[in-house]
Each structure stands twice: as structure tokens, then as C-alpha cells.
Design goal:
Helices cover about 10% and strands about 40% of the residues. It is mostly beta strands. The protein has a six-stranded mixed β-sheet with strand order 29-32-31-30-33-34, covered by helices on one side. The protein has a four-stranded mixed β-sheet with strand order 26-27-1-28, with no helix packed on it. Strands 2-3-4-5 form a four-stranded antiparallel β-sheet, with no helix packed on it.
Length: about 550
């Protein structure tokens, strides 16, 4: 009996920084974090997929083969434009994949100076002069970013078309289909959709008709929540998405012959308070759309990518998602499997900037992660260590902290306490309570610690109780404990990983200080690390009551 294994490889993308020249009168600006991108596909026709990587520092697009078990660089090309989307597909039927790249910028053109256009180009990088592209499409735009790129048989004629989307204006996304006509390509215009960044095609209704499926993080108004819909001609069939959709995929996940829609469904314009990396499945059942929540991925504010891949060859695809952590270019990669007992999930990698799937060294699907330490792990899904349970649905809401003044203080919903046993505001009535919302990575938070130490010494004996409040945003409980071991803060710290306390008090940004009087009423909500003398005056006034 053979054992099929899915192997996960971790790939470190290394770039050498340029030597900065400094002068006394021209300081060097702070270095921007390096952005890593990673893709895969069979470019040489050997039935093994190559790995493609690009980073924002070197700007080199590197093609690497792992067919012989070790890394071998096949080609390198400097690509100044940002390769926002890349697909490898055998467009001409010669057994070798072409490189289809949506090029532009990651953001906006400068108001003055040289401008970058949107480009859709085809390369044959392993052939002579293969880096001389065939230009399929070019368009000037203030925001030249390609947001979606799929190779599909759109009209079911047995020939591949290229479905892509790009920002034509600041918020307006144009959809296009490129069709080959001899040696050239014809561009078909599809509707313009405000913020319609995520575009794919499938048959989620189950009537054998291919339709566009569109997800968008924002709606038709500037602060209107996004969602998802199926486009049937000019008619929009709205899907029951929860909020802003940052990624979308269509496929038959449960193996019943009908496609479902997978949505990354937790984005919100106020990502600091409300956004979540939510994964859900939407299925058309008996004339109605059924919304199935799968997981709110902890510590991730959105899911940037969803891939459907049959990892264990049972005819049903697993779901692989790429998250994004707050204040980070990276996020967690989660793998989900639907069984008769329900959904299982596990984390394949933490805080990486992307993943690529392919048969790199053998016949089984493998995954390579970008921006991680080089570690090789074998994973057999038949005895994989799935999480004991998936993370629960997190109710999210937004509260204006100014509306809380003079009202009873919400309870503290912490799961961990460091420096004391669990405290409750009910039991602290008769004391003046200060809640200090902070994080280990927040420099303004740390800068005010000396002042708070003084308050603890001066006002603690008079009835002031200070509680530090934090969460799992870009930090773990272990990070918090290690930080406190060094800092030796003389007040307890509570950790609320689900952010309920932060939401209840309308916290964002941090530092954020809340003062509660002896009767349990909120008397002050102070944002930022400045004007601490005003906080101290309020402490003294509340203690005098």
C-alpha cells in the first residue's frame, strides 16, 4: 500500500540591501519593509512546477526549480513594475507554461513626475529573448494596480481566456476578458464595478451557466460595507456576505457536483477595531443562498487569498487561505478540510507573505511559503494534527468612546491575567480604576510607562487601581509575558485575545486610557500618549470624591 504525502516546504527569499550613502544635511529615510511575492507553474514542460519569487528590494523576478531535490535558479529578470498578479498557463498548447503578469504599482501614481501604466503582458522566460513581452493590454490609471487575474475557458469553446481586473480610477475597477485571435489578443470590456477587486467565474447556481462572481471590500459609497454578488448579464444577484469581501473562490468543495462560493468575509474600513479574517461558504440550496460560517481566523484582520486544491486526492479540494496580520505584510496560512463530521483546520505557517502550490519535487501537491525561514516539513493529511476546534465567530461592532462617558463601564473580558488573580469592575467599586490599553510593539504606549509608574506610587495608596489591557494583535501571550518580565510593571495586565474589551470601550488607536469612578461610571476616555497632565488631574479629582 502506498502512502501519499503532501509536503510543505518553507522558502526564504533573500535580498541584499543596497549600500546607503549618507550626508549630514540629507538624512536617509527609514527603510521600508521588504515585500515578498511568490507563485508557481510548469514553465519548462518537465511536469514539475517551478517557483517564481519577487521582492520589492531587489526587484528581481527569480525562477527556481526544485525538480532534482535542491534549488536551481533557471532565470532572473529585474522587474521595476510591481507584478501584482502572475499566472503560469500553457496558452499555446506546446506543453510549456507562459508567464502572464499584471504589472503596475502597489498603490497610486505620484502627482508629478514619471507615471506607470497598467500592463498585462505574456513572457516566455526560459526561451531566447523570452523576457521581451507580448503586450496584451495597457491603460493609464492614477492607481495602476491589477487586482485579479484568472485563466479560464470563459465561453466553453475549449480555448483559454484571461479574465482580469484593474483600477481604472481611484475606486473604480474595470473588468476585462482577453481572447486570443491568431497571434494577437482581443480585449472584451466587462462592467465597471466600484471596488470590484476580486473577480472569478463559475456556476454557483447550478444551472450549467458560467457567471462572473465578484467580491469587493467596500460598497458603492465611501463608507459603505462591501460584499459579493453573482453578475447575470447586467443583473446583480447579491450573495449573503457578512461584510467586506477581500478574496473569493468558486469550486465544488463538498463533492456534490455543484459549486460553492468561498468568501473572505470580514473586512471593514475600520480595520483597527472591527476587521476579521473570516472564512465562509455560500451555497445555493433550494432556491436560496445558505451562508455557512467556517472560522474567524485569530490575529488576522483579513484573508488575502483563497486557493482550492485537492491535497489528498480524494476528489474534494481542501481550502487554503492566506491571512494578513495587523501592522504586518504577512499573515497566517490555514488549511481546511470538509469531512462528514464538519470542518477541520490547522495552521500551516505563521506570519508569511504568501504561498504557492505545485508539484515541485514529485507527483504530490506541495506548498512553498514566501518570506519564512527555510524549514522543510512533511504533512500527511490522513493523520494530520488538526486543531481541536475552529475559532468561534466573533461579533464585531464599532463604538464611539465619547458616547460612553457617564455610563457604566463594560466588564473586562480577559482570558489571562498576569500579575494578579482575575479582577472584576464590580468588585473594584469604591476604587478609581484606570484601564491602560497598550501593546508590546506600541512605542507611545511604552513611552508613558514611567509616568504611569509614578501614578501607581503616588495614587495607589489613595485608591487608584491600574490595569493594563492588551490583546493578540501582532503579538502573542508569550510575547506579552516576556515583555513584562523585562519591564517589571507594578500593575496587573489582562489579555483579551478576542478584542471584546477593546471593542466595548471603543479602543483604537493606542495608547488609550479609560478612567472609571468609584461607582463604576466612565469619566474619561483619553487617546494618545500626550497631555498626560490632564489624565492626572482627572485621577486626582476622582480620588477626591
Amino acid at each position: 500500500m502506498s502512502i501519499r504525502k503532501t509536503i510543505i516546504l518553507f522558502l526564504l527569499i533573500v535580498s541584499v540591501p543596497a549600500i546607503a550613502q549618507t550626508t549630514q544635511d540629507k538624512p536617509v529615510p527609514p527603510k521600508r519593509p521588504t515585500l515578498y511575492r511568490i507563485w508557481s507553474g510548469d514553465l519548462d514542460g518537465d511536469k514539475r512546477d517551478e517557483v517564481l519569487t519577487w521582492d520589492s528590494e531587489s526587484k528581481n523576478l527569480v525562477i527556481t526549480s526544485y525538480a532534482q531535490g535542491s534549488a536551481k535558479v533557471l532565470a532572473t529578470h529585474t522587474m521595476e513594475n510591481y507584478p501584482g498578479m502572475i499566472k503560469v498557463y500553457d496558452l499555446d498548447g506546446d506543453g510549456k507554461g507562459e508567464l502572464i503578469i499584471g504589472e503596475g504599482l502597489r498603490g497610486y501614481n505620484p502627482k508629478t513626475g514619471p507615471q506607470t501604466d497598467v500592463h498585462l503582458r505574456i513572457y516566455k522566460p526560459l526561451e531566447k529573448s523570452g523576457w521581451t513581452p507580448q503586450e496584451i493590454f495597457t491603460q493609464a490609471s492614477e492607481r495602476p494596480e491589477v487586482t485579479s487575474l484568472e485563466v479560464l475557458d470563459v465561453d466553453k469553446d475549449g480555448k483559454p481566456e484571461i479574465l482580469f481586473a484593474y483600477f481604472a480610477e481611484k475606486y473604480q475597477v474595470d473588468l476585462r476578458v482577453a481572447r486570443r485571435q491568431g497571434s494577437t489578443w482581443k480585449i472584451e470590456e466587462l462592467p465597471r464595478i466600484r471596488m470590484g477587486m476580486q473577480v472569478t467565474m463559475g456556476d454557483p447556481i447550478g444551472d450549467k451557466k458560467q457567471r462572473l462572481v465578484i467580491g469587493r471590500p467596500y460598497g458603492d459609497g465611501q463608507l459603505e460595507l462591501g460584499g459579493a454578488f453573482v453578475l447575470d448579464g447586467e443583473k446583480r444577484i447579491e450573495l449573503p456576505a457578512f461584510r467586506g469581501v477581500s478574496s473569493i473562490a468558486v469550486g465544488d468543495v463538498d463533492g456534490d457536483g455543484q459549486s460553492e462560493v468561498l468568501v473572505a468575509d470580514g473586512w471593514h474600513y475600520d480595520y483597527g477595531k472591527v476587521a476579521r479574517g473570516r472564512l465562509a461558504l455560500i451555497k445555493f440550496v433550494k432556491g436560496k443562498w445558505d451562508y455557512q460560517f467556517i472560522e474567524d481566523v485569530p490575529e488576522n484582520v483579513r484573508l488575502r487569498a483563497i486557493a482550492l486544491v485537492d491535497l489528498n486526492r480524494d476528489g474534494k479540494p481542501e481550502v487554503i487561505v492566506q491571512g494578513e496580520r495587523k501592522n504586518s505584510l504577512g499573515g497566517d496560512v490555514r488549511v481546511y478540510q470538509l469531512t462528514s463530521a464538519g470542518w477541520h483546520g490547522m495552521t500551516a505557517a505563521k506570519d508569511v507573505q504568501g504561498f504557492a502550490i505545485g508539484n515541485f519535487t514529485g507527483s504530490s501537491p506541495q506548498i512553498i511559503f514566501g518570506g519564512a525561514e527555510p524549514t522543510v516539513t512533511a504533512l500527511n493529511l490522513s493523520n494530520a494534527k488538526w486543531d481541536a476546534h475552529l475559532a468561534e465567530e466573533v461579533e464585531t461592532y464599532k463604538i464611539d468612546p465619547a458616547t460612553l462617558l457617564g455610563k457604566p463601564a463594560p466588564r473586562i473580558q480577559a482570558t489571562e491575567w498576569i500579575g494578579s488573580d482575575e479582577l472584576s469592575l464590580d468588585k473594584l467599586k469604591g476604587k478609581v480604576v484606570m484601564l491602560d490599553f497598550w501593546a508590546t510593539w506600541c512605542k507611545p504606549c511604552i513611552a508613558q510607562f514611567p509616568t504611569i509608574r509614578e501614578w501607581q506610587t503616588r495614587y495607589g495608596p489613595k485608591g487608584l487601581v491600574i490595569i493594563g489591557m492588551t490583546n493578540h494583535s501582532s503579538q502573542t501571550s508569550e510575547d506579552v509575558r516576556a515583555f513584562l518580565e523585562k519591564q517589571k510593571l507594578p500593575w496587573p495586565v489582562a489579555i483579551d485575545p478576542r478584542d471584546r474589551t477593546q471593542m466595548d470601550y471603543g479602543v483604537s488607536p493606542i495608547p488609550h486610557t479609560i478612567l472609571i469612578d468609584r461607582t463604576g461610571m466612565i469619566r474619561m476616555s483619553h487617546v494618545g500618549g500626550k497631555d498626560l497632565q490632564e489624565v492626572e488631574k482627572q485621577i486626582e479629582a476622582l480620588l477626591a470624591q
